[in-house]
Structures are given as C-alpha cells and as structure tokens.
User: Which sequence fits this backbone?
C-alpha cells in the first residue's frame, strides 16, 4: 500500500496542478470599463511646507487604491502643469520627463504608490509664493485629482560665511546657512525684527564679537533647522532636536541682547562662555523661547546674564547651566520634559539632569543668582540642583517661585515664598507630545497650576505684561513664570 501511494504521487500532483490551472482560468481577469468605479486615495491634498528656491523638497508619497471588485486601467496619470510644473511625480518607481503616464493597470483590491517632489526656481520676490498643481487621474471617463500645495521662498544663502565688519541682517528674505556663520572679534551682528535664520545640519552661529537680535512681539526673530518636511506624517522635523548646532557667544568683552527670539530643535541653544575670568561679558534674553535642544538650552560660564519673560524648555541635559558670574531670572519658565521617545520612538530621553543646575566652583569670584517669580519644573522629582565647593561664599536669592523639588528641611534662608513640588501638581497646559491627538508641549499655566497668583506684585510692576503681551497686573495677583494665566489656552 505504501509503495503504491509513492508510485501514484506524480500523477496525483499533476492532477492538482491541472485543477489549479482550470480554477484560475475561471477568474475574471478582464479590465472593467464601468464608469461608476472610482479610485481612492490616502489623502486628497498633499501640502509641502515652505520650499526654498533651487533647493527642492524631500520626497512625499501618496497611495492610490482600487477598492473595487474589478480590475481597472487608469487611462492617464499626470500633472496639470505637465513638463513645466515645478512638481514631479514618480509612479511605482517609473519617471517620465513630461510627468504623464498612460494605461496604468490597477488590479482589484490593490494599490500603487506615487512619489512627489517639488523644486522652485528663483522667484525674485521677498515674500513666499503659493505654488499649486494637481495629480490628475482619468479612469473610465472619470476624472479625479489630488491637489498639490506648497509655498516657494527665495533665500539668501550663506556658506561658511565670516562677518568681518558690523553688519545688519534684514528681514526681507530668510537666510539659509550652511556651515558656521561666524562673527569676527569685536564686530557686531544685528538681526532686524522678523529675521529668519534656517540652519543646515551641523551649522551654528558663532559669535566672537557681539550679537544684537531685537525682535518684537509681532515680528519675532526665528532660528531653526532648515528641514521643513516631516519625519512622520504627524511629526515635522522641526519637532526633532539636533537639526542644527546653536548659538555660541565667545567674546570675553561681549555685550549681547536677544529680544523676542524663537529658537528650537538644535544641539545646544545659547552657549555663553568666557574662559578669561578677568572679564565679565553680558547677555540679556527677554521675551524669548529656547526649546527642544539635544543638550543644553542655556549655558553660562563666567558671564553676567539677565533673563526675563522667557521660556527655556525641553533639553536632553540641563535646560539651564550656570557657572560663574551674576545671573538674574525674572518671570521666566524653565521646564524640562524632554523625551525623544515621544518623537522618534526610541528608548532615550533626557539624561536625568535637573532643569536648572547652579555650579559654584570659583573661590576668588563668588557667584550670585537671583530668581524671582519663576517656574522651575520638569518630568523628574528633583529639577533644581546647587553644587558648590564654597557654599559660604555663594549668594543666592530665590523668591515667589514654583520649584519642582522636595521641600528641604530646614528651608535655607536663600528661599522665600517658594511653592515646592507636590505629587498632584498640574503645572502646565500640556507637558507632553501626543502624536495621535497632535497635541504639542505648551508651557502656559494650567488653570489649576500651583504657580498661579504666587508672584511678587512689586517685581511684576517691572514686567507688567507676559511674553504674549497679556497683563500680569489686571487681577492684582501675578503668576510665576513667563506666561500669565488668562482663562484660556493658546500656543506659547
């Protein structure tokens, strides 16, 4: 019996193959011409953020579905602008110089990819220009379209540029920076209100002279990476740290001012360092936001700094590191909830360092720190640290602030009217990034925030409006931090 089965196995196998052949021959392989059958798309509009002229975009994609029970033949796929369009398309890996494709078969319940890029020639205008086209599909007499939308922007391009004289950069066109933009010794770079600086990967602003960045509430100065596309559909590259270098202020006699500056998503925010202890360079940061840096937000070494109405937030290491000099922070928010797990889906977050580190190591030149009406918080239980080899010489004053730290016992005399951390505290509107709900970090105060109404009124008189221009004095009870609670949420 066993031998008989083995002997008959080839004939049985051939019979199975013949059955399969006849079964498939009965399946309808024809292409339907029914005009009621239509295509479906993963999106009906593809929007590219600002495209720098001559640079071009990264590649985006759209998926085309045939959800019908019948095979379809797409008679034509093409761009409305044809070969002259600034857009170009690639259908399933195939290019066509005219951006036109014909007789593309799409089987029932199947799909195909179309890849889209856009490159804009110089526009010779200062303002962004709206660039529009469509991918047009013709199937069984039905015309369907997916819109393509972008803004083209002329740029001033700097490549390893060194500024040798006092220079003003206007806001007429944005600046695209490759390599370092360097300011020579004792020279001053001034950025006008509304200036926009886009830094390529690894590029930094290195200042051996002075930096004056004077934005306004309606025309802030922007410093960020140059990638305007998205890492994932819901995650712009602008949300990802380490997209560029940072600002390095290295002049021993420097006098720097940052007002209404928005900078984000680089390696380090502001690195203000002086190795010559005989000098005390100065830095003022007002009404600014330094957010989402892989290492530090603000580093001060042997310099005097005044920070008011400013948010410094989300860094992989210390958000603020102070070592040497006099440091005054008034109505500022230091918040470190940095966690790249929320962005890159990697198991790395902040390095366990406090939001604020004050380190006093100099016996000859004692350091002084003043914090008034501030918020110091983060995702750890201890977001405030002082390390000093000469505690008897350190002069610290901390008043009317919220500090995420276990209340010390006894409370040192340098702390007055401090609201210490409680496990149940809800300090901010949003201290996380939710990819599904598209909710991004918002360090304005929550309605239940313990930082509300704890500010010193006399200090607030010097800074009567918050970073968003809201009055701190209207209710007679100013809040701590850079933002006054006004009964509604918004964006910082």
Assistant:
């Amino acid at each position: 019996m066993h031998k008989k089965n083995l002997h008959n196995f080839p004939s049985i196998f051939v019979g199975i193959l013949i059955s399969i052949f006849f079964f498939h021959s009965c399946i309808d392989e024809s292409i339907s011409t029914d005009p009621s059958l239509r295509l479906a798309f993963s999106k009906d509009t593809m929007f590219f953020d600002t495209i720098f002229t001559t640079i071009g975009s990264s590649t985006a994609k759209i998926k085309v579905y045939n959800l019908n029970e019948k095979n379809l033949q797409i008679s034509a796929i093409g761009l409305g602008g044809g070969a002259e369009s600034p857009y170009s398309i690639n259908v399933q890996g195939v290019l066509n110089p005219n951006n036109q494709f014909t007789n593309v078969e799409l089987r029932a319940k199947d799909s195909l990819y179309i890849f889209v890029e856009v490159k804009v020639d110089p526009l010779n205008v200062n303002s962004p220009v709206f660039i529009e086209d469509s991918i047009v599909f013709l199937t069984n007499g039905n015309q369907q379209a997916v819109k393509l939308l972008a803004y083209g922007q002329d740029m001033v391009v700097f490549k390893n540029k060194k500024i040798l004289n006092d220079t003003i950069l206007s806001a007429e066109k944005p600046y695209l920076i490759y390599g370092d933009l360097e300011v020579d010794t004792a020279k001053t770079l001034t950025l006008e209100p509304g200036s926009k600086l886009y830094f390529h990967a690894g590029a930094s602003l290195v200042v051996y002279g002075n930096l004056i960045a004077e934005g306004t509430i309606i025309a802030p100065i922007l410093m960020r990476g140059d990638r305007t596309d998205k890492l994932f559909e819901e995650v712009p590259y602008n949300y990802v740290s380490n997209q560029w270098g940072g600002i390095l202020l290295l002049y021993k006699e420097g006098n720097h001012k940052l007002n209404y500056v928005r900078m984000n998503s680089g390696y380090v925010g502001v690195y203000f360092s002086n190795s010559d202890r005989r000098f005390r360079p100065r830095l003022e940061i007002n009404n600014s936001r330094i957010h989402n840096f892989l290492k530090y937000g603000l580093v001060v070494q042997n310099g005097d700094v005044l920070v008011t109405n400013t948010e410094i937030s989300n860094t992989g290491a210390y958000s603020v590191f102070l070592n040497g000099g006099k440091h005054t922070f008034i109505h500022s928010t230091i918040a470190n909830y940095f966690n790249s797990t929320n962005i890159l889906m990697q198991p790395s977050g902040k390095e366990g360092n406090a939001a604020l580190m004050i380190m006093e190591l100099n016996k000859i030149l004692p350091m002084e720190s003043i914090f008034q009406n501030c918020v110091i918080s983060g995702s750890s239980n201890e977001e405030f640290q002082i390390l000093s080899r000469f505690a008897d010489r350190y002069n610290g004053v901390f008043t009317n602030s919220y500090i995420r730290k276990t209340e010390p016992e006894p409370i040192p005399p340098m702390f007055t009217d401090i609201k210490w951390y409680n496990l149940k505290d809800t300090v901010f509107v949003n201290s996380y990034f939710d990819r599904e709900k598209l909710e991004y970090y918002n360090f304005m105060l929550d309605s239940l925030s313990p930082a509300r109404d704890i500010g010193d009124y006399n200090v607030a008189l010097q800074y009567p409006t918050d970073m968003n221009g809201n009055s701190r004095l209207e209710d007679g009870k100013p809040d701590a931090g850079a933002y006054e609670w006004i009964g509604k949420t918004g964006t910082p």
